Amino acid sequence: MAELPKPEKPDKKGWTQEDLAKKSGVSIDTVKRFLKKERIKRDFFTWIAQALNLEITEIVDRHEWSPPSSPATPIDWRETCRAAAQAKRQAANTFFANDLGQKIDLNNIHVPLGLIERQQKP
What is the pLDDT of residues 73-95, one digit of tens each? Predict the structure, then answer.
């Protein structure tokens, strides 16, 4: 902080705790806890680092900032596929309501051969 140009007077160097508090948008008490390496909220830490033009990993070990994720929960592929197939079956068994409010099962429509005109290729 001693090397940073003052926010209001760029020709002078050396930020005070008040300067850092104003620039970062946190309270002076938070700045004091930060400088004493005491616990502060993650957002406040980010704001202070941005005010100092620093990357978080320049101040904190990257493993502490974002700890390694816990082991992934194993996926039961049989259950996943069974659920997907069941969802497709349910979607296929849907009914269509016509303008009169009658429900028509789309899976049981019978169309005799020869009654549908095939589209002619151009």
Answer: 787 888 888 888 888 777 665 55
Q: Tokens 């979607």 map to which residue? A: 91
Predicted TM-score (pTM) of this structure: 0.49
Domain that holds residue 51: 17-64
Cα Rg of the chain (Å, integer): 33
CA 26 – CA 4 distance, rounded (Å): 18
Distances (CA, A) of 73 to 20, 32, 76, 77: 43, 41, 9, 12
Residue 89, in any domain of the structure: no
- DSSP letter at 119 equals P
Query: Residue with structure tokens 């596929």?
Result: 81
What the block records as the tokens of 121 is: 């290729």
Query: Is 42 a domain residue?
Result: yes
